[in-house]
Structure formats: structure tokens, C-alpha cells
């Protein structure tokens, strides 16, 4: 079935391309040095750099080693997905720094939940190492979730990832008592199993 969010992207020749970028959002003070934007092809080398850094061993989903083709696939298949119930939203919110010429600082992902309602999302996020520990991600998540009134968000954080758990708690997520899970980690990223905690937030 055709994804309705791609229909608006049909080009004159019938091929699909990314829609117009969404309107940029500057974070509220004191984080107004950062803004939310859409993914661009000029970000692909930065994604390759970051997903091959420590993130390769922290994040479950991105392939490793990560290539420019993987970035192109993410751009073409996920990043620009739109959600008809929430006009002006997209799947991948690129966080950029004004004083660093708009460099990609990180991404906050609002991923549709397969098999669940159009109001049900999974949240994911990361920052480049040099931008961590400054309180940026709680400000980003708060701003992004404001764009999804009435939506239900789920998020998972590894048991040992206290920074990620704190982000969720600061943003009003609740720990789900019986939601703990175990994931088989990809062999390319070290293999083994890891324990995750589940959090939810009704916006
Ligand atoms: C997790 C992450 C998104 C947090 O974003 P951030 O903007 O750095 O978050 P903050 O600066 O608000 O820091 C989070 C809080 O956790 C605390 N924290 C961070 N690491 C910690 C650790 N190892 N132990 C205890 N507390 C820790 C910080 O002190 C801060 O708490 P505070 O505000 O009370 O001082 C960011 O560190 C990151 O991108 N990490 C790598 C990718 C990742 O883990 N993604 C999430 C996968 S589930």
C-alpha cells in the first residue's frame, strides 16, 4: 500500500522526492542557539561520521559500519515522512547550531509505531559527543512533543544509560513497570543482549 505521507512528494515525472523542508523552529531561550530543521543531503557525511563514532555501540537501529548509501536510504525512506494528523511535523528533526554554520548537532526521531494508530509514536534521539551534557536534548524533546498534541509516545533507554533516562524523566515520561525488555544486539555492533526500560508519555 502506498504510504499516504509520500503522495504529496510525487514529482512531475512520477518519481518520489523529499517534500519541501518543514518550517525551522528555534528552541526557546537559553537554547536559542539551536534550531530544528529537516535533513539535507549535505548532512550525509556528518551522519556517517557520527553513526560510526560511539553511537555505533549505543544506538540499536543504524547499520554499522554506516555508509553514505545508508544516509541516502534514511533520507529517502524515513527522515521526511509526514503525519497527516499533525501538520508541520516530520519523522526526523535535525538539531542544528547557529554559531556552527548550521552543523548537524543531533537528531530527534518521532517514528510511527508499526501496527498502531496514527497517534502512536516511538521517540529516539542522539547528540554529537561535543554537544552532550549541556541540557540540549530535554529542550529539544519538549519542543518537538509540543507539535504532537494528543499523541502517545513510547521510548526505551538502556538500563545503564542514565543520561537518556534523565531526559525522559525531565520531559514528563513515566517508567512502565512491566515494560522491561531484552534486545539481541547486532553482531556487527558487538553482539550479546542488552536490557531496556520502557517509558511512555501522553501528550
Ligand atoms: C542521552 C543524551 C541524548 C542526553 O542529552 P543531553 O542533552 O546530553 O542531556 P542533559 O545535558 O540534559 O543530561 C542528561 C542528564 O543526565 C545526567 N547524566 C548524563 N550521563 C550520566 C551518567 N552516566 N550518570 C548519571 N547521570 C548522567 C546529566 O548530569 C543530566 O542530569 P542533570 O540535568 O540533572 O545534571 C545524550 O547524552 C546523547 O546523545 N547520548 C548518546 C546517544 C544516546 O544515548 N541516545 C539515547 C539512546 S536511548
From TrEMBL:
InterPro entries: Acyl_CoA_acyltransferase, GNAT_dom, N-acetyltransferase. Pfam families: Acetyltransf_3. Residues 1-23 are annotated as: Disordered. Residues 1-13 have a biased composition (Polar residues). One of its GO terms (molecular function) is acyltransferase activity, transferring groups other than amino-acyl groups. Residues 34-188 form the N-acetyltransferase domain. This is N-acetyltransferase domain-containing protein.
Amino acid at each position: 500500500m502506498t504510504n499516504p505521507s509520500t503522495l504529496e512528494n510525487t514529482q512531475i515525472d512520477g518519481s518520489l522526492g523529499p517534500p519541501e523542508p518543514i518550517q525551522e523552529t528555534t528552541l526557546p531561550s537559553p537554547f536559542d542557539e539551536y534550531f530544528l530543521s529537516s535533513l539535507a543531503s549535505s548532512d550525509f557525511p556528518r551522519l556517517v561520521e557520527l553513526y560510526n563514532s560511539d553511537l555505533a555501540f549505543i544506538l540499536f537501529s543504524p547499520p554499522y559500519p554506516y555508509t553514505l548509501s545508508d544516509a541516502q536510504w534514511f533520507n529517502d525512506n524515513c527522515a521526511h515522512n509526514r503525519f497527516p494528523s499533525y501538520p508541520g511535523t516530520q519523522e526526523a528533526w535535525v538539531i542544528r547550531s547557529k554559531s556552527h554554520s548550521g552543523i548537524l548537532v543531533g537528531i530527534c526521531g518521532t517514528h510511527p509505531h508499526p501496527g498502531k494508530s496514527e497517534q502512536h509514536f516511538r521517540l529516539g534521539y542522539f547528540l554529537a559527543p561535543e554537544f552532550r551534557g549541556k541540557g540540549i536534548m530535554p529542550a529539544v524533546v519538549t519542543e518537538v512533543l509540543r507539535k504532537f498534541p494528543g499523541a502517545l509516545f513510547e521510548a526505551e533507554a538502556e538500563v545503564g544509560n542514565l543520561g537518556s533516562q534523565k531526559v525522559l524523566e525531565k520531559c514528563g515520561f513515566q517508567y512502565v513497570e512491566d515494560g522491561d525488555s531484552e534486545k539481541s544486539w547486532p553482531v556487527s555492533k558487538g553482539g550479546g543482549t542488552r536490557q531496556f526500560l520502557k517509558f511512555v508519555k501522553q501528550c
